Amino acid sequence: MSGETTSVPARQLLRAAIDERRARLLLTVAGVRAVERVAERFTRVRLQGDGLRAYRDARPADAFKLHLPSAPHAPVPLPTYDERGRARWPAAVGRPATRPFTVVDADPQAGTLAFDVLSQPGGATAGWLDGAMVGDRVSLTGMRTDFVDCDAAEHLLLVGDASALPAVAAIIRSVPARKRLTAVVDLDAADLPLLPAHPRLDVVGAAPGTLAEALRDVALGMPTQVWIGAESEAVRRARRVVLDELRVHPDALHASGYWKRGSDGDAHFDASLERFNVARDAGRDVGDPGLLQQLAFE
Questions:
Q1: pTM value surpassing 0.85
Q2: Which of 115, 136, 137, 241 meets the CB 3.0–4.6 Å disulfide criterion with 101?
Q3: Membrane-spanning residues where (predicted)?
Q4: Which fold has domain 23-144?
């Protein structure tokens, strides 16, 4: 067990960034500009559209919801949102499959945005990607702020499975060379080339389903910021190790469930939205990232 670490205000910084962005909803239609394989299990999709020119405040690990067509090459209209955050779609279209992705890079001048897709045969995204062609239209909603680098932290601990690899990679690219980095990752060896180089990066490989166990061997010993992204149950267990055994202060931790075993992406999002609305109705501070983690994992 590690000794208690000094608290860093990562949660407060993340909340400030979320609050600052809250009124800037990106809701737009874009076309597929390019599709290319970038690793054995990952395909990069690049979108282009005039609406993407408004995305001028990119942050590492920014996440958005991609609305997929119900039939190959069919257009996807923009949703409207009710007062409880639920998307409404034209009756003639019905609800499309919606999946979250992480921004890999964006160019507001060119109106482009790229994201990486993990190959998962049989899923809604795989079905769309198999037939996707340049010029196909999709719609998207964003951005969710998932990371702000805390200068007070001398060490950044990243924890993730393959679903979070694009976010982990984006964060590593953004972190200054002076900061120590540890990435505890549950990945195939073929995925590792997607992790960018960093002069102080230590990569710890975890066997499938053992992120929490691998964390027990991580030495901290300095002010540390922690970011976790993975399957929801894996996040819950990893989060408990970070808080209870590594003794990281909750203000230094941010955790996100990227998917939930046994549940499709739409059901996972609906459950999260329901927890949010119940907490808001009860007068709780739903703008606090720490509260949202408690609702999801405790």
A1: yes
A2: 115
A3: none
A4: Elongation Factor Tu (Ef-tu); domain 3 (2.40.30)
